[in-house]
Amino acid sequence: MNTRFLEAFVWVARLNSFRAAAEKLYVSQATISSRIATLENEFECSLFDREHNTIKLTSKGILLLDKAERMLQAEQALQKAMHDDEEIITRVRIGVIEAIVHTWLEVFLTELNKTYPKLEFELTAEPTSHLHALFSKGALDVIIQTDPVLDDTVINTELESLKMEWVCHGKNQFANRDISLEELADSQIITFTRGSQPHLSALSIFEKQGLRPSQVHCVTSLAAISKLVKKKQGIATLPLTAISNELDNGHLALVNYPEKPDPLRLIASWQKLSDNDLNKIIVDLAISASKSHSQNQFPQ
After folding, report:
1. Same domain for 185 and 230?
2. What is the reported pLDDT for 4?
3. What is the residue range of 138's domain?
4. What is the C-alpha radius of gyration for the chain, rounded to an integer number of angstroms?
5. Is 259 a domain residue?
6. Residues 29 and 75 in one domain
7. Which among 257, 251, 19, 297 is positioned nearest to 36, based on CA atoms?
8. Where is the HTH lysR-type domain (predicted)?
9. Cβ–Cβ < 8 Å for 268, 142
10. Phi, psi of 47, deg, nearest 5
């Protein structure tokens, strides 16, 4: 039995899509359909119900899925045992939120290149919700974002969080001074995507005191938030170390309200099945980079 056919079956089952499985495995959709048809002929049963443009495992398909995953994991273990890590030439698709781009991404990618000099990577920077959507379609192998992927086929690992601060223009009246929550509420607040962890954290600070900010602007890009603040557009919630240069040169300043926004939680997520050992090493490198960043750059 060709294990590539089992791999095609497993990814169609996981992604509920022949097209997504084809994109994941870098083959045509016709190739995926052919491999599934070959398996169904060999086992003399239908593995998927294909009704109303949906794909659902049959009872035989459910039975095969667990055994197929075990066979593929055994094959991966054998391949790992027979090949030296340094000979790996492959490609990995990594998705990160923009806060990582502005903090420890460079360190992470440097260590990744040292560990796997021949590894090619495709990097996508998007908000958490977009990364989850791409990951669910099989378009990304590892994502580092703010919320766990709630799926029993996915491994979620927590990384070091990023300290968040209230930030304003360097010459704002509130720069480097203590202010009240009422003064903060009277300002325009700039934060991340609506419904994101930083957005909800900022709102909760006001809600606990029965207040509501006069205006709340939600911006997808961290760089855009920083630019708006430097244009004196309001007070923002930003990761401290992402703006260290702007704080040093006086373009930005901290606002001293006692309750800070919650630290930006970071979660690495990857599928249990495909290239599990490689993905685990990638996540371990990310954990190391986030810890080093936290220890060396956060002021105590």
Report:
1. yes
2. 87
3. 87-160+264-297
4. 23
5. no
6. yes
7. 19
8. 1-58
9. yes
10. -100, -25
Query: Which residue positions in the chain have pLDDT lower than 50?
Result: 86-87, 298-300
Same domain, 235 and 168: yes
Please give the structure tokens belonging to residue 183.
């003064």
Per-residue exposure over 71-93, b if at least 16 CB sit within 10 Å of its own CB, e if not = bbeeebeeeeeeeeeeebeeebb
- Distance between CA atoms of 84 and 98, rounded to whole angstroms? 34
Residues 12 and 75 in one domain: yes
- Three-state SS at 13: helix
Select from 59, 82, 105 the last residue of a domain: 82
Compute the mean pLDDT over every residue in the chain, rounded to the nearest whole number: 89
Same domain, 156 and 273: yes
9/24 Cα distance (integer angstroms): 12
Residue 193 and residue 198: Cα distance in Å, rounded?
8
Domain count of the fold of the chain: 3
Give the pLDDT of residue 296.
67
Q: Which amino acid is at 264?
A: L
Looking at 32, 60, 82, the residue that finishes a domain is: 82
Per-residue pLDDT tens digits for 236-252: 999 999 999 999 999 99
Is the domain of 240 the same as that of 173?
Answer: yes
- Beta strand pairing call for 188-191 and 215-218: parallel
CA separation for the pair 176, 191 (Å, rounded): 19
Residue 238 φ/ψ, nearest 5 degrees? -140, 150
Can you tell me which residue has the tokens 């994101």?
A: 196
Tell whether 155 and 274 lie within a shared domain.
yes
One domain, residues 168 and 249: yes
What six digits make up the tokens of 18? 């022949």
pLDDT at 89: 52
Give all strands (DSSP E) within the chain, no chain letters: 48-51, 54-57, 91-96, 120-125, 142-145, 154-162, 164-169, 188-191, 215-218, 235-239, 252-254, 264-271
Q: Tell me, what CATH number does 186's domain have? A: 3.40.190.10
Q: Are 202 and 225 in contact (CB under 8 A)?
A: no
What is the model's pLDDT at position 254? 95
Distance of CA 199 to the CA centre of its chain: 17
Phi, psi angle pair for 219, to nearest 5°: -130, 135
